Amino acid sequence: MNKLGLFLLFPAFCLLAVTERILIESPQEVLIYDRQSQVWNFPAVVAPARVLVSFEQRLDFPYLGGWAPCWGILVNKQPITSMATRRHTRLLNKSRTAKHLDHVRFLTDIGEKWYALYSPDYDGAKSRFSPYNPEAYRMLLDITDLVHHDRENSIQIRFGADISGYYKQMNIKRAPALGVRNFKVIQDDTPSLIPRPAKESDYYIQMKDLPSVKYELDVQDKGLLVRFGEKSTPIHSLFSVPGGQWAAIGAENSLETPFYKVERKIVRQKNRIDLFDTLTSLSDQLIGVKIRHESPDSDFADIYLGGDATPNCEEYAGGRNPSVFLADKSLNQSIALIAQDDVFRVQNLQYCKNGKTGIRTDTFALSPGESRTVEWSVYPLMSADYFDFINEVRRDWDVNFTIDGGFHLSLNLFRDWTPEAAWQFHQKAGLKYNSLGVFFWSHLGGEYAKRGSAVFSTSFFDEESRGRLIPNTITQFNNEPMRQFLGEILSKAKSALPELKRFVYVHNQYSNELNDHEKYSDCVISKADGTSRKYPPYNFFIPTTENAFGRKFMGFLQRLIDEYNPDGIYHDEFTYTQSTRTYNMWDKVSVELDENHEPVRKIGFIPLLKLDFNMQVMDYVLNQRGKLFIANFSPETRSERKFKFPRFEETFYSNWVYLSHLYTPIQLGDLQNYSITPEGHIADIRNALRNGTLYYHYNNLAACPTITSVMFPFTPIEIHGGWLIGKERILTIYSGEYAWKGENALCVPFVYDEQGKQVPDYPVTFAGAQGETVCRLLLQPEYCAALVKIPVAAKLSDEAQLKNVVLQDGRFTAELSGKGSAHIVLNNQTEVFAAGGKDSIQISLPR
After folding, report:
1. Which of 130, 213, 514, 776 is least enclosed, having the fewest CB within 10 Å?
2. Which of 116, 30, 114, 115 is nearest to 72 (CA)?
3. Which of 648, 675, 701 is a domain's end point?
């Protein structure tokens, strides 16, 4: 991380009479390379005034191209987006979207990731927008709400993009870099409308039960009216009708058009409302229906789409977190909508547009005479906390099962590791599972490093497969060296670390089989224009239980386990790759509609087309072969919840992590980590905890050993933003009072600093509170902690307190202070200690 020299740095107090004051200015261009960052500092802002940051940015490239999501900006370590809230814009000098003459629609940012234009300069792309955009490269951002008034401020721009391979493929003789110039921070007298957020350093967690909700439900002409607390929230259900019309379900819970009818069943649960809308076709033709369930959102300041509260998001798609959550913090209550059945989840769109927030499908198909039921639920809550909603759903969906780890994708390194080096690496990173990643030829080293491709599953046992010689020559390679390499790696890992669980990578949609496009033409992934999705040397297919590609993959999987006997299978991109849709296979439930709601063509959602096949894969690996299973991508459907095993989310975009909230909440370390330092690594781990997830390492291991060594196993009880409660441990980045509900359990604290290093003997205090034993923890800024439960309980009366709790080598010790007594329970035996008497407690555990 570099700190840039400043050209101008004016004390704010000298310029109070000036309308505009430059706090920092740096006109020269700076190139920020991959996983690096640049920091600019400026003084405390002592006067109440608006503060703006302005700069130009580009992706350094020898000629004009498109754009890539590749950089982030943090003000005082807080990531920012183009919108500060849904009602307050942060980006002041241009719209978030623009029309591009070559690549259609340009978007400034998605979540916390911003787009940069491929460009050799700061001028050429301006004329490629319609209309001409003089602000194409420049950013002007209002950061007033985030500046410090009592200490120095910092702005960090970081660059992370996995595009070095693209540069090599295009024969670009330079390293990818983000160019930034004309950077300055300005203070002026214009009032900022952005409200100031709460300081994270002020958070103090006091665990509370979610109040039960008492709601009333009225069925009205356009849908539902849910009354609870101090709020009445309408939920309108609209169904499209051919001819460009819309119809609302009536107060009789039914709707009939010339083309279809709808019958609604409502089931009132204690914590939610379940709705079952059965649509029956009255037509002799294939029809499609757009279905939307929405609420006016003007009364709700905080809105989450698919778990993402980032105010610059307007629409997300998919079934991994098919929910919208609307919160009113002033009343401490909220309401959420969520899709339930397989089809509605996969087709689902979560949206916040034009004053309406809801869930919908634009692709629901009905064949002549067909009836199908759409299932969805409404959750009213006496809480404005999104995670209280998530925990309600997690309990209802029965997904709080044990998650083990840690997991890593570095088994290929056993090629060069000595047993001692392997042991140190796994011990340091806290790894129980390790997988060979993509079967890249480069893993073999030597001459194989010139092969810029991999061998994918269905071609693995073939004599040859399609590949690429760097930079871009498509050819064929003999696969025997790769098969030998896999055997050697698994053998070396078993010999060096017998307890390590060895996984092997598979993917059931990528292929580089010879002549695969001809052999599997019936299931190639097709674009809307009829062409096939390709990324030479790879083609992409959709396996089913009935087609040849599916049979080829299952044959590979059986032979892989038979011949190599790995401990587990790691499946990449389990639900889909490249696209969620294909246009040459019909899933029998989806259709594309035009603006008049007329069918255009049949389409297939890949998670539905391959659902039965994926169920077969999970059953085969877990049940028939008794192997461990880990997958990338959370379930898109309800059916997949039948199988319980770790499934994580990558974080190329910041919102992807929220997709894990309704299954196993695991973040795979940031693909674009922006950092190779211990500070960057532990910050990424803290960010995962802040987003309510556990953490599997990916690129950066610089902070290890760190909190991930004491993170697993973890059986979720509740997940929250910044703190997670598991049966075995509590993980947190915040100070607070933590306990296991209804228990007097004790724990041992493992606390880690801003470098990820363990802080020895970190003080915590145990006290009695409402029949439970709470652990009082005061964390320093940028620290995190794991409170690991031990098999010792302490019921503390009056003002008795325990400190310095230690369980080591079969011996429990603690210091007792205050007034009252401590009832120490160990192996169902209780010993009573009086405070003020014997201050030191020592008990030996029976061996």
Report:
1. 130
2. 114
3. 648
Q: How far is CA 761 from the centre of its chain?
A: 33
Judge whether residue 6 has pLDDT over 80. no
**Tokens coding 646:** 């770790």
Structure token pair of residue 225 = 């009216």
CATH number, position 242: 2.70.98
Query: Buried b vs exposed e over 444-463: b needs ≥16 C-beta within 10 Å?
Result: beeeeeebbbbbbbbbbeee
What local confidence, expressed as pLDDT, does residue 339 receive? Answer: 98
> Same domain for 225 and 131?
no
- Helices 419-429 and 480-496: crossing angle in degrees, nearest 10, is 80
What spatial distance separates the first Cα and last Cα of the chain, rounded to whole Å? Answer: 51
Count of alpha carbons within 13 angstroms of residue 11, beta-carbon side: 2
- Number of helices (H) and strands (E) in the chain: give both, helices first: 10, 66
Which pLDDT does position 733 carry in this prediction?
Answer: 97
- Locate 836 and state its tokens: 């003020």
Q: How far apart are CA 24 and CA 520, in angstroms?
A: 60
Residues 123 and 60 reside in one and the same domain: yes
Per-residue model confidence (pLDDT) at position 11: 38
Each residue of 169-194: b (16+ CB within 10 Å) or e?
eeebeeebbbbbbbbbbbbeeeebeb
Are the CB atoms for 183 and 54 separated by under 8 Å? yes
Cα(26)–Cα(539) distance, integer angstroms: 47
Q: How many domains does the chain have?
A: 4
Mean pLDDT of the 174-190 span: 95
Does residue 607 share a domain with residue 517?
Answer: yes
Q: Is the pLDDT of residue 846 over 70?
A: no
Domain boundary among 648, 680, 703: 648
Instruction: Give the 3-state DSSP-derived string for 568-582, with helices as H, strands as E and coil as C.
Output: EEEECCCCCCCCCEE
Q: Tell me the HSE value of 598 on the side-chain side, using a 13 A CA sphere.
A: 3
Contact between residue 61 and residue 182 where contact means Cβ atoms under 8 Å apart: no
Note the Cα 570 to chain centre separation in Å. Answer: 19
pLDDT digits (tens, 9 = 90+) for 556-605: 999 999 999 999 999 999 999 999 999 999 999 999 999 999 999 999 99
| Same domain membership, residue 740 and residue 602 | no
Domain containing 82 equals 2-197
Give the pLDDT confidence of 764-785 residue by residue, as tens digits: 999 999 889 999 999 999 999 9
> Residue holding tokens 């030597």?
446
486 φ, ψ (degrees, to nearest 5): -60, -45
How many CB atoms are located within 10 Å of the residue 260 CB?
Answer: 22
Q: Helix 611-618 to helix 548-564 angle, to the nearest 10 degrees? A: 10
